[in-house]
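We emphasize that the prediction below concerns an isolated chain of 173 residues; any contacts that depend on oligomerization or on bound cofactors are therefore not represented. The input was used exactly as deposited, without trimming of termini.
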Amino acid sequence: MASLLSLCLFLVALQQKADPYAHSSLLAYYQTATKDEGIARKFITLMDNYQGRDPLKLGYKAVSHAIMAKHVWSPYAKMKYLRQSSQIFEEAVALDKHDPEVRFLRFSIENYIPRYLNMSNNLAEDKKVFMAAIMRHPRSGISSETVKIMRDFLVRKDLLTKQEQQQMEKINL
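Result of the prediction step, given as a token string:
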């Protein structure tokens, strides 16, 4: 019985290892690529090879472009990456308007874009979508790890109202 369990765990780990677009892998890139240009380059290379139509993976593809804008020096290159990111986010949201993680990803990127560039037009609507999902957790279908990342980002960046802070405190993770 123990060897059967070990074999099952090995096969699951092997399957996850084989899928470079596994959610856990994309989430790890999301959390580390902003701090390391080498990781950001690997992330954008991986995501530029993605040709599917999965809204969440497209959301991470958009994130990879936005993160590269942080690492390039040229203002022209920065704008190019941000425009590409915006276009990919539009496609992802069009495929699934109610995906809270896609909405959070776009919110987290738009939050950093200077307002004078007029590229942060979705903050309020995106926040409404993903906050509703967070409040429904665990029935929302979002993993606890993802909800924790969302919550920590909102708290760290002081992006919650007093009422939202109180609601967040009630969520068990």
